[in-house]
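Hi P.,

Sorry for the delay on this. The queue was packed all week, but I finally got your sequence through. Input first:
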Amino acid sequence: MSGFHVLVDYMVRAALLLTALQLYLTINKLWKRKHERAVADSISILGEFVGLVPVTLFTLKFALDGEWEGAADGGLWIFGAVFAVLIGSGRWVESRRGRGMFTLIRESIHHERGEVGYLARSFIRPSGASHILRILGRVALLDDHLDDREKNFVESFARSWGIDFHWEDVPAAPGDDPLDFLPLRQELDDYLATSPPPAQVQQLGEVLHALVSIDQNVMQSESLMMTELDGMMDAYLNTDEGSGLMYAVVLVPQGQDQDRAIASVLPDLAKRDLNGGQVYVAGNYHSFDFAEIVAAQYRALNFFTAVVRTEGRGQTAAA
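Then the structure:
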């Protein structure tokens, strides 16, 4: 046997001592707190049983092949797993004394099964999940038709997140009034106001695009709305001040009478100076086409309305 093989043999035997030391330190800490229920509940008996299967098979193979070091290492881990199961069963916990071992293990597994999906749900279910479902529902109804594929797509998210979702709670699809699109935009704005993680916002954008194309027929209303929603999400993800192109819808009063009329009919509109005059700002949008349909609504009220390009966050570039 070469010197290298001898060195490896010594290192393997030393590793066995380290394994034994690791198990002793772990078991010693558990043993001192074996009577505490929190310690017992923190041990996953299901996880230990799952881990025992491959360890036992490898240990058996090592033993049959005469590789005693591997078999000894596996035997140590099997001992540690069995000890952990005993602690996890709660047999030393005051409130569980007097019950049989199999009863304790069965009760612990039953309790753990109710928790087994907790970590997965905490990762999968996003913050603002209710907002997201309402956004998905509104987008699905943009074309005034709920396709079965759209319906199943949205409901699959509700089921995976454990949220009771009803289509009756989703507002009707936008009609001929362009301003009917605004609630969907506001819903996304409310969601972004919750400061969701950027990765989650990116995923939402991907999901929305998948939803509008799932019926293989992207309507003009869906394309129009998605352009605006994409702009909102891009602006959220790009936080550099002064970046981005937006479009403001402004109402320009043609005389004092119209000024008073605008202020009376639309009291919530903001008013500011623009190019030496005063205008009412009806809103800032990320898409010219979307801003234009909003502007058309105000023109229908006989108000002089224009779409003004803005740079960054609301600074006028041209009128």
